[in-house]
Every structure is written in structure tokens, then in C-alpha cells.
Amino acid sequence: MAKILKIYPQNPQENFIDEAVKVLQNGGVIIYPSDTIYTIGCDIYNHKAMERLAQIKGIKLDKQKFSIICNDLSHLSEFTKPIETSTFRFLKTHLPGAFTFILEANRNLPTAYKGHKTVGIRVPDHIIPQMIVEKLGHPIVSTSIHDDDEILEYSTDPELIAEKYDKLVDLVIDSGYGDNVASTIVDLTSGEPEIIRQGKGIL
Question: Which ranges carry the YrdC-like domain (predicted)?
Fold first, then answer.
């Protein structure tokens, strides 16, 4: 059964953040809040955890398009090819924020991303994932939690999310009601921003 931790962004308790980080370090899969929707993720460098995440999503690991959650732009060079100064300035203008930016990937991506030519980078404007990444020391991955309801695309109630994923994940961070609008996906691989999916972020 998944453990539920109530961590609120107004005053996040550091020992609870440490607990979430420990779950990730031990190969766990967690559900956590962001500046958009609740998401599910794991340690980007734990291959078994990535396999679990793909299994939960019902996809093969080599077909995944999990976004990488960073707490700032310092991790960019680890995973992406060198970017133009103008592109970097554009990213700095819009991050942290409700965007997923598609960039050209380099060869340093973890094995779960083998063969991927591009990668989605997120820096959410939410203190909880930022603190988790900072304390973990490297990025985590993110994939959306879709609702089974045909009308509602994303679940907003963390208690219902915890109930649904109780036997699939190790930890659910309850940070109050989430949003029901996902991030805006912007492709920057051509040098010019191209909106792939309009979401919460407005360019």
C-alpha cells in the first residue's frame, strides 16, 4: 500500500521531503504535485524504477516519453546538446513555469532513454518537486496521471489519486487539490518555439 504524506507548499516540512527522497533512492515510484497536474515519477537513474513506471503507464520502456523534472536549468547540459544563447535566454524567461520544452538530447541520457533524439525538460514552479530534486541531487522523471473519466482528463483530488494508485506506487504526496490543465509542450529543436500542445503555460 502506498504511504500518503501531506506536504503543503506554504510550509513544506523538510523531514517529509527527505522521506520522499529516500523512497526515490530506494527505487520507489511516487506521485507528487506540480504547478499543473499531479504527476507520477521516479529517479531518472534507477532503471528498474523506470521499468515500473512504464509498466504502470502500460507502455514499453523504450517507447516512453517521460519528461525530466529539474529544479533549475543547471542540468540542461547533462542531457541536451549545446543550445544557442537566444534559446537559453528564452528558457530562462519562461522557467520555472508550466511548460515542457522539447530539446535535442545528447548521448549522456540514462539507458532508459537510449535512442531518443529529443527530450522534454520541465522546471515546475512548485516548491515540492524543486526541493525533492535539489535534495536528491539529480532530476526525476514525470508522466501525467490520466483520469478514467471520459470528461475529466486529469484527476485533481490527491485522495482519489491515492486510492486509485494505492497498489502501484510507494508514496503519494498530498499537497491539496491539483490543477486539471497540463503543461504547454513547446518544441525548441528547430530554434524557434513551436507549440505542440497548448496547456497552462502561455507564451
Answer: 14-201
